[in-house]
Amino acid sequence: MTDRRDLAAMLHPLVQSLVAAELPVLAAHGISMWGYAVLGALDDSSVRTQTALAEAIGADKTRIISTLDKLQHAGLISREPDPSDRRARILTITDEGRKVRRSVRAVIQANEARVLARLPLGDRQGFLRAVQTLSELSREDIVGPT
């Protein structure tokens, strides 16, 4: 047993501060945090249905409809009927959506680089590797069997 604080106790204030730093960047680009999550999911993978997208970003499929409406109205995504199931919609990021996502990510990651620069290079690289590895764990891997 160690005297260190729990991971959640250490990470929660850090994550809150990182989110607070992102909010003005997102606002300047006219998108919400959910909008950014949608653009990221669509830019990082193939075309998705609204249901699959909601699952991928951890959102309730009925609650992201207004986010999708705003992104579509802004020309950042397109939604077309699925030819194999007309009730479903196929989502695609547009070139403009890709441009906005990359612009936002560049500003966010520049701030992250500023914060990470407080760590020695080896610690910084190790921290990023560790966070990447842990972020790929499933919820069940973290929570354990229920």
Could you explain how this protein is built, in words?
With 146 residues, the protein is mostly helical. The chain has one domain (10-120): Winged helix-like DNA-binding domain superfamily/Winged helix DNA-binding domain (Arc Repressor Mutant, subunit A, Orthogonal Bundle). The chain has seven helices and three strands, in the order ααβααββααα. The chain has helices at residues 7-28, 33-44, 50-57, 65-73, 95-116, 121-135, 139-143, and strands at 48-49, 77-82, 85-93. Strands 1-3-2 form a three-stranded antiparallel sheet. A hairpin with a 2-residue loop joins strand 2 (77-82) and strand 3. Helix 1 crosses helix 5 (95-116), helix 2 (33-44) packs across helix 3 and helix 2 (33-44) crosses helix 5. The radius of gyration is 18 Å and the shape is globular. The mean pLDDT is 92. Residues 4-136 form the HTH marR-type domain. This is DNA-binding MarR family transcriptional regulator. Keywords: DNA-binding. Pfam families: MarR_2. GO terms for molecular function: DNA binding.
Global geometry: globular
* CATH topology name: Arc Repressor Mutant, subunit A
The CATH class assignment is Mainly Alpha
- Alpha carbon gyration radius: 18 Å
Residue share in β-strands: 5-15%
What's the name of the CATH homologous superfamily?
Winged helix-like DNA-binding domain superfamily/Winged helix DNA-binding domain
CATH architecture: Orthogonal Bundle
Indicate the low-confidence ranges by residue numbers: none
